[in-house]
Amino acid sequence: MRVTEREITAPVSLTTPDGRLNPAAVGWTRVPLHRTDGIGRGRHGWGRNKRWEYWAVTTPTHIVAFTVADIDYAALHELWVLDRATGTETARSALGVLGGSAQLPGTLGDGPVRGRKGDLAIAVDEADGGTRLRVVAPGVRVDILAERPPGHECLGVVVPWSERLFQYTVKDVARPARGALWLDGRRVDVPAGESWAVLDHGRGRWPYDVAWNWGAGSGVSGGRVIGVQVGGKWTDGTGSVENALVVDGRLHKISEELAWEYDTTDYLRPWRVRGETVDLAFEPFHDRRARTDLGVIMAHTDQCFGHWSGWMADSAGERVEFAGILGWAEDVHNRW
Predict the structure, then answer these.
(1) First vs last Cα of the chain: how many Å apart?
(2) What per-residue confidence (pLDDT) applies to 292?
(3) pTM given for the model
(4) Where are the chain's structural domains?
């Protein structure tokens, strides 16, 4: 189903002085323009505030992902590494009471990101030419630069459930990456030209019970750099969607609620994501499965890694076809 969305082209505050959603902030951007300092400050919406940075880097041999999150009553720090050849997962996580162990800037790019709890330390810093990603944990070290080419665009969207519950998300796909990781002292290169970084930046106030789909991918197909960004469930009925195509750094907004098809009894079967302006197939090779059930707190995640192929329409309505774009598709249900 098509939706009508407004492109925002000037800086705007996400919230009003009383902490509610600023109606002028509802829309989408191709560069970050939203000020989100009102989230997680003072008493406005305490318990519903969610702030996080999630980075994932795909390489020819490994996939690396990490999170720093502050959800008011807890801070979550996670590192996950997949060896694509063997399917071996390496995971480290730490949970802090309240949000003190997570340092997150009020607005994207306004300061460093730090997550430190126990023997897990995460650092994200803006650097010349991009963003430096560093993680240290037992048996694992990561040092990667997510490059930001000149003119590179990313999707920013405000999703309004109500004036009190809303989310600002930035999905930044197809960032060239280079650097290295070390696994039990063994260096693994993150080779330039073959590695890609994706950022999921979030600031908002969420409902207690929510489900979502998210898909992303980055790579080269037909001589062009392709970035895939699709989502669903959590945006349905809000008038906002987080769907876009990035071609050679240029963002093409997809203003349509898409239909997701997948088998919840076997997530490794092929997925389909379709609409009038999108027709994608996703072929998974690995399911990152996580389950947390703590009474009032519940999190169920199946994040499948694999390859995207198909077509998406660009801003002129022309089909952009591609194949073999490495990324993920996920099915998540949280009570938080």
Answers:
(1) 29
(2) 82
(3) 0.96
(4) 12-335
User: Which two structure tokens, joined as six digits, stand for 137?
Assistant: 């944990």
Q: How much is the CA Rg of the chain, to the nearest whole Å? A: 19
Contacts of 112 (CB under 8 A, 6+ apart): 103, 105, 123, 124, 125
According to DSSP, the β-strands at 186-190 and 155-160 are: unpaired
pLDDT digits (tens, 9 = 90+) for 291-328: 888 777 788 999 999 999 999 999 999 999 999 999 99
The residues that bridge with 309 in the sheet, in sequence order, are: 281
* 206-235: average pLDDT: 97
What are the Cα distances from residue 92, in Å, to 49, 65, 67, 71, 183? 24, 11, 11, 19, 13
Q: What is the pLDDT of residues 260-287, one digit of tens each?
A: 999 999 999 999 999 999 999 999 999 9
Residues in the chain: 336
What is the CATH number that goes with domain 12-335? 2.40.370.10
CB 21 within 8 A of CB 164: yes
Pairing of the two strands 34-35 and 12-13: parallel
Task: Check whether 57 has a pLDDT greater than 90.
Answer: yes
In whole angstroms, how far apart are CA 50 and each of 70, 168, 201, 336? 6, 10, 11, 10
Report residue 47 as tokens: 């318990």
Measured between alpha carbons, how far is 267 from 331 in angstroms, rounded to an integer?
9
Write down the pLDDT at residue 42: 61
pLDDT tens, position by position, 154-175: 999 999 999 999 999 999 999 9
From residue 36, how far is each of 85, 136, 162, 251 by CA, in Å?
40, 29, 17, 22
